[in-house]
Amino acid sequence: MRELGRAVQLLTARYATGQLLTARYATGQAALDWRRCLRTLPLEEALRAALADSDPGPQITLAVVVVAAEHHRIATAALDSLLAEAVRRARKADTSWDLLGQAVGMTRQGAAQLSGRLRQRTT
C-alpha cells in the first residue's frame, strides 16, 4: 500500500512538473495546445528548454531535477534489464564468467556479482 501511495505522489509530482514547465516554455502550437487542452510539452522538450534558460529560478531548477531524476531512473531500469537478459543468454550459451568479466571490464567474480544484483533489480 505504501508503494501505491509513493507511485501516486510521483505521478502527481511528474504531472505538476510537466504543467509548470509547459506553462513557462511552450511556444507556438504547443502554447495553444496548453491553453486550450492543457496538453503538456513532452518532458524531454520541456527539460531542454528549462536547461537553456539563463535565469530559470528555484522552482524551475527543482522541476528540472525531478524530470532528470525520473528519466535517469527509467533509463537505468531499462538498461539493467537489457544487460541482465544479455548475461543470462550468454551464460545459457556457456560463456564463462571470465569472458563476461573481461567484456564488462571486471573480474569474473565481479561479473557474477553484477549479474546477481541485476537479477534482483529486474525481478
UniProtKB/TrEMBL annotation:
UniProt superkingdom: Bacteria
UniProt name for this protein: Uncharacterized protein
Organism this protein belongs to: Nonomuraea jiangxiensis
Lineage: Bacteria, Bacillati, Actinomycetota, Actinomycetes, Streptosporangiales
